[in-house]
Amino acid sequence: MSEKIVAEDQWGQMIFYDDWNSLELKWLPTTADASDADLKITMESFADESVSRRPRTLIVDTTEFRHQWGDGMMEWRDAQIIPLYNQAGVTKFAFIANRNYPGPTVDGGAKPAAEGSATFPTGWFKSRDAAYQWLAT
What we know:
Elements: E1 3-8, E2 12-17, E3 22-27, H1 36-53, E4 57-61, H2 73-88, E5 92-96, E6 122-125, H3 128-135
Parallel strand pairs: 3-4, 4-5, 5-6
Antiparallel strand pairs: 1-2, 2-3
Helix pairs in contact: 1-2
């Protein structure tokens, strides 16, 4: 699989997979020291990269994510970030969960569904392989 780091900062790396037109944000352990404002900048960069590259699918790897979101982050994401993913033409979005993720996962029986204003389904996965399998279908 052809992959290329297309952007990065101290909180994450953005990797483009040309072979299957997918963009990934891999959060780094340094997120433990980040503020919400720091991570918003990384999320905005990922969304901008999505608009410019127009990937078919998006992946966010949270296996090393260590930050605890503050109040209002999900509302901000829905208002500021999701519309950019919609504009990019994303068809599926996969999160790879870290071991502390409390929610349901697709590989545990949950069904992918649109979040907030998204025009595409999002699924949470325990493994990268399960996420790739879903994204490929």
